[in-house]
Amino acid sequence: KPLNNNDFIFLINPKNKCNSYDGTIRLVYLIKSAIINFNRRLAIRHTWGYEKRFSDVVIRTVFILGIDNTNLNLQRKIEEENYKFGDIVQANFVDNYFNNTLKTVSGLKWAVEYCYNSRFIFFSDDDFYISTKNVLRFIRNPLEYPKYLELPVSTKNNTLNFSKNYQSNKKLQFLDIDLPVDVKLFAGYVFVSSPHRHQTSKWYTSLSEYPYHLWPPYLTAGAYVMSKQALLDLYYGSFYTKYFRFDDIYLGLVANKVGIEPFHSNDFYFYKKDYSVEGYQYVIASHGYNDINELMEVWNNQKAAGNA
């Protein structure tokens, strides 16, 4: 019997965002954004979230928001924003830090119900720099990224291999330039850590909430990517996994339950990586871009260098 109904109502829903395209959408960005962050959303639309960045790759970008019942004026502004851009998904939960799990699960639900023709889903917070170019390179060959990019072109097509189910099945599939459709990729920066038992901690977790001394491996919540098959397993697994207020740990618990092993990449930075053009060549995501001018400057620099 399910523990959660996941019965979110989408108050604003760009239903045709994905199904207006007949083929497969390569990449969907689901960006968890706080209601008031209008400027961050605008900056993302003009930088890494720009859907027409590559003429030969179909990309969609949406922002996941909750509600603020205390401010009707703010709600009106959100509706105007969506009228203009058509990329807001707003679900009926109160938008605050401890409801990030609800924001994440409502994002999973929206992707399953309205973006079924997508191949990869990338969840991000709205304070990240992301290189779409590197995301696309990573999802072709996660095991060998970024090493495979430095091989001579003649050998590249022979080296892209990824096990069909890399956590248990040793059989490697040789691929031209893609992963198998049924691969369960759930990738980002993997943490293995213990619950905080100090009552003064922001992340305090009581023994009654979680009695074990280690969390299952989990991806930091700011930026991670999943394949369609992983999306389906995680979404349906979330019905049977009690909600937990830390969204990254919650998804780790769900992944553990459905048998998906999070895949680690050092190119997802949960902190702000010091910027240099060369240093960001293979960066997939870096946290800490609250300043939209800095985000736009870094992204434009990296785009000019061929890295974004």
From TrEMBL:
A Pfam family reported for this protein in Swiss-Prot or TrEMBL: Galactosyl_T
Compartments, as annotated in UniProt: Golgi apparatus membrane
Keywords linked to the UniProt accession: Glycosyltransferase, Golgi apparatus, Membrane, Signal-anchor, Transferase, Transmembrane, Transmembrane helix
UniProt topology in membrane: Single-pass type II membrane protein
Protein EC: 2.4.1.-
Top EC class for this record: transferase
The keyword Transmembrane helix is annotated on this UniProt entry: yes
GO terms for biological process, alphabetical: protein O-linked glycosylation
Keyword Chloroplast: no
GO MF annotation: an example: hexosyltransferase activity
InterPro entries to which the protein is assigned, alphabetical: Glyco_trans_31, Nucleotide-diphossugar_trans
GO (cellular component) term, any one: Golgi membrane
Coiled coil region boundaries: none
Name of this chain's protein: Hexosyltransferase
Native source organism of the sequence: Clastoptera arizonana (Arizona spittle bug)
Source species taxonomy: Eukaryota, Metazoa, Ecdysozoa, Arthropoda, Hexapoda
